[in-house]
Structures are given as structure tokens and as C-alpha cells.
Automatic annotation (TrEMBL):
Record key words, sorted: Endoplasmic reticulum, Lipid droplet, Membrane, Transmembrane, Transmembrane helix
Taxonomic lineage of the native organism: Eukaryota, Metazoa, Chordata, Craniata, Vertebrata
Region (Disordered): 269-292
Secretion signal, residue range per the UniProt entry: none
Biological source species: Scleropages formosus (Asian bonytongue)
The protein's name: Lipid droplet-regulating VLDL assembly factor AUP1
Amino acid sequence: MDAPRIEQLFDFNRFPHDGVLLFLLALYFPVGLCLLVLRIFVGVHVFLVSCALPRCSLRRFILRVMCSVLGIYVKQRSSWLRDRNVKLYISNHVTPFDHNVINIVTSCNTPVLGSSSGFLCWARGFLELDTTSSHTELAGGLQQYCSDLSALPLLFFPEEDTTNGRRGLLKFSSWPFTVTDTVQPVALTARRPLLAVSTAESSWVTELLWILFVPFTVYQVRWLSPLSRQDGEPPQDFANKVQELIAKELGLASTQITRADKAEHIKRKRHVAPQIRSTNVDERPRSQRSPGLLASISRVDDVRIVGMAQKVKEVLPDIPLSIIMRDLVQTNCVDTTITNLLEDGGDATAEVSSGTASGEVAAGLARGPTSYTTRPATPPWSAAKTFGKSPVDRHMSLQERKEALYEYARRRYIEKHGLNRENNM
């Protein structure tokens, strides 16, 4: 299976794009609001029951029935594979309530590893730990916990963040696999009609309200055979093995994308200026787009885009900043933008000659008349169609174009100011 791109692992839009589904959602909306209000009151009773009853099979049965009223249906597969002697369950992560779902089918504790603590941590069913400790110290404390035969098993989500559960798994962190040598993999799926199961930027409170709003959410817990770490096997290799096993069971790809990569991707989506969407503009060729579009792009105040534009400008000084920034907003990559501008030099020349970016042609030279006595038949950046495949070839190709562009700008500056005629006098 091909490795998915990072944006394919997460949903940023909860609502469907299909018009029929949107129409059905609009019809369901009043019903969903009524269910939300009713289920909030039922949810309070579920919370009180979970607090009052001791952890046992009777409690799990009552909670399972009451959660079905809340629209949470839990199914279990291959329960006979669950080993009661294993002290560590390893699962993929789909929603903020995965630990509650697995607790409905078997009693276990999920250590909280974030900044949450106190009542909210306890109310959500987490086992509160010393969050100031390092992973090594936490693993040592949890090893002592697992040495107690009467202690409940631990449940970990080594992805450390949620995905949409459709394309791939985040890279498993290695430190949970240092707690015990034997783990029980758990493959978890979640499905619901009309809406996405979770979105990348939603809080657990928002996700809870959507669970109460939708008709139902179906969770399926699949137990896999326990795995033991071989003597001398590094924890990361063992983590990768478990990740591959769970991904194969779910029919997903096992990626090397981490939680930090997800956070960076979300940050980039927040700060990168949105692409300008206009049907009338997009249907026209680049050489015929209105100057208003260039002006709107030139007003982009994102510091990172401006910095990237300056890097492109150093390589292609004859291209206006407005054109560079327009392409950067779409590609978000310096190399891709340089490639696009080099391969599409004719359109850039047409925009320069039409007056959309006068004064940026000579890259810092003094302004002069807009008419030129002579002009090369083709601009120097159109000499080659593509970059070399290797970094060395690409660097040499860019250096050649840079020197050609400087020579091109210098010759036009001399012709513009008539320096040749003055020297001949």
C-alpha cells in the first residue's frame, strides 16, 4: 500500500461534501438537537452510575446498555484472544473516547500523559500520573505497577494523537513498549453516518457534543494475538512490529508520520494564507488574469511566505514579487515555485511587459522608461524546461539561470539608459 500524505490522515472538515448527504443532514438537524438535549441528561446518569458501581462485569453490562442510549454502540471481535495475564494493551487512536470504549468491554487503566489533571482527568476515566516526570521515569513507575498481579491492565495509544482511521497510522512511540515485554494489540475502528468521526482541531468537549448529536457511533474492538519482545530487540523495532500488525488488521498503511508532524501540519494550515478561490479567475489563463488578483496576493502579510518569496527572488530576480507570492501561496514550496516560474517563463514575461510589476524587472536597478530598444527573443529562464533529478544538477542549473538572468537584467539596464551611446561619443 502506498504511503498516504499527511493531510490524508486527518479530517479538517466534519461535514460531507456530497449535496445529498448535506440535504439529509439538514433534515436531521432538528432531530439531532432534541437528541443532544435528551442525551445530556442521560449522560449525567451514566456518569453517576460509573462512579457508584465497582469495576466488574455487571458494571460493564449496565454501562454498555446505557451508552447505547447515548448512541455509542460497541462491538467486540475475537474476544477469546484476549489474554487475562497480559498487563499492557496497545491500540490505535481514533477518537478522544477510545479508552472509555475499551473499558466497556474490559476493565483497564489508561495513564494520562498530557497536562490534564484533577477532577476532569478522573471524570474522563484516566489514571493520573506525575506529568512532570520523563518517559523513562514514567516507564519505571509503570513497570512497578504491572508487577502487581492484582492491578488492572494498562491501555496505551502509542500514536499519541488521533487520526481519521481511514488511511494510515501515526508512528508508534517506543517508550510504552519498555513497560512490559508482552503486549496485547487492539485494532479499533469507529463509524458514524453523515459526519466525520473526529476532526484534527476539535477538543474532547466538542467531540462529545457531536457524539450526542448524531444518531449513533459504532465502535468495533478487535483483539489480536499477544506479542512478546525478543531478547535484545530494541523497543522501537518492537513498536514498529506491533504497528505493522495493527495496520494490516485494519487494512491501513503504517507511516513514519509522528504527532509532532501533525502539530506542525495544523500550524501550517492555520498560518499559510488561504488560496484565492474565484471561478471566473481560475477559468482564465495566467497571462490574462486581472491585475486585481496580483494586488490581492501582494498584500499577503504572512512572514514565512514573504521570506520564501525573497529566496525565490534571489534566484529569479527578473520575476515580480507579486507573481512569486501568488505561486508560493499555492505551492508552499520554494523549489516547486522556482520550477513553475522557470517552466512558465513566457507567461511571466507577458505579465511583466503588460505593466503588472514594472520596476521589479531589473532587481533593484533604478527606474527608467518602460520602452526598450531591443529585447531577447526568449527570456533566459526558458532555456531549460526542467530541473535535474539530482541536487547537484539542480544546483548547477539554478546557478546557470541566475547568471543568465543577471546578464539579461544588466543588458536591459544599459539599453534602457542609453549607456552604449554615451560611451561611443
